[in-house]
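User: I want to check something. If I give you two sequences, will you return the structure for each one separately, not as a complex?

Assistant: Yes, each is folded on its own. Here is the first sequence with its structure:
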Amino acid sequence: MAKPPVSQKTFHAVSMTGFGRASVESEGVLLDIEMKTVNSRFLDLSLKTPRSYSAFESFLRELLSSQFHRGRVELYVTRTVVNKDSTSVLFHAPVFEALYAEATRVAKEQGVLNEELERSFVRDFLLRREVLEFAEEVKDEEKEKELLQQGVLQAVSSVKAMRETEGEKLAQDLLKRVGAIEKIASDIEACLSSRAEEISKKFKERVESLVQSSGLEADRLEGEVALLFDRIDITEEIVRLKSHCEHFREIGQNSPNGRKLDFLLQEIGRELNTVASKAQHSDLQRLAVDGKSEMERMKEQVQNLE
């Protein structure tokens, strides 16, 4: 008994494109978090966090890896200390000295070094962030780590909601197109049936031509005829094409499924290419080209699935 078609509602697609934002505050520390995700073959994490949060990088990577399977994830964290008592100034002397020494050396070589230029060097270098840094001290790492996790998960939730919404639209389009390919496969079968006499006539003509021109012995001729028939028979390709379409719907029931669907579309494309090359009638070739056109559009859509 044939399986019923998979319901459109059960096809689950998650887009890799999303954006989310969150703000959390606790004990005088405000975190503004932005997150965006885009297409990528693998999971690619990019973190932009305050220098004081460098110890949290491995924690953030582990947290994000547990939430996303595929795509480029960009995380931006801005930390603002409401309680300014925890703010201190750090002077990075080695950086300043290196900048000042190199600037004065070049100015001296060019013969333009003077007292006014030296003062401008000092003023300009002190304004550089890598020289003079306003460090907002993290007094309680565990509490800030919890606050960071809370904010990131809120942003993740917003991103996932957008990815789900976009995924629903992709799912509808993919189901529409795989249905179109299934119809094309049925149309090819119908065309084969209606054109059977015409195709058989062409085949018979080719065999007769082979007999007249080759002078082959009976056994050899039988083998050549079998090979010729195999070259124009597309029954197996149509069976596999329909099976791939059914499998496409089944894979779509579980996410993440982007890579599997992408691979399956390659198989669908291979069957359609074979049909197009074997087809002995212009109508069959046109149908195969229409199927390949639908498959190419599906591949574009699947590239954006997690």
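And separately, the second sequence with its own structure:
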Amino acid sequence: MSRIGFHASHEQFAPSHLLRLVQQAEAAGFAAAKSSDHFHPWSERQGQSGFAWSWIGAALQATRFPIGLISAPGYRYHPAIIAQAAATLGEMFPGRVWLALGSGEAINEAILGQHWPEKAERNARLQECALLIRALLAGETVTHRGRITLVEARLYSRPATPVPLFGAAVSPETAALVAGWADGLLTVGGDFDSVARVVTAFRNAGGEGKPIHIQHALAWDETDDAALAGAMDQWAPAIVGGEVAWDLRRPADFDQVAQLVTPQALRKRIDISSDLGWHRDRIAALAALADTVHLHCVTRNQEAFIDTFGARVLPQLRDPAATAAH
């Protein structure tokens, strides 16, 4: 049975608020959590962007379930620093931490002023960083001169079992690329057939038997109109597709593009409804592809979402017979 997790969105909520939310999610029956790692929010209206690496230590201490996060090595973080941070968390909270590595977005990673490369170069840089992080987590002394420079680096504080390194991918092509080095896959939810193609590409390229995590964006509220309004307000900027999403540099840029997003376009990217049964069925379909589905309710009504889904959706997902009865 797949686990259902809670996505902690640093772009939308202050770190102190998010800490209370992740505790509430665990108490409501969510089995795991996942954290974003942004320097900027996607929109000025979201208005937050706490430092995920500080927050996740507090969140792990305040809960008992596993929590992972996604980071982009090689830009604002040197891979050696990510390796040290992950090793420290893994040593303190054994078996509860996983790390996904992605190729990054300019809105977060270009803040240091360096050249922001095209996707093929970002993928190559990601693989190089992932191999360095893996070597450090294994206790090796690493010297490397390539896209990244690392000289005589060794981690002394490490967990007995290295923290799993997932590859982040939203396309079949990238999923196939990360399959060779990743311990698992993190991808996004949405249309079942599109997600299935990404998962299949990962498995066919060397990921067979490795865990699959899906971050699934949805909008729920008491009415369809409220769910749509909340999604349009908070998440319209984030659905920008293609290279545009990776290349825009400021929240204001995303807000400018969001003016062109229609409700119809948003519905194609986010599950928007007040119907809990409809959401349950969509989540159940994705759960058939994955070991864990992390639910990201993109609206601001997080407390109501957690309590309602905890009481009325998660029990049915855990019990297929109950789902069939509905």
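Because they were folded independently, the notes below concern the second chain alone. The radius of gyration is 19 Å. Residues 3-325 form a domain with the TIM Barrel fold (CATH 3.20.20.30).
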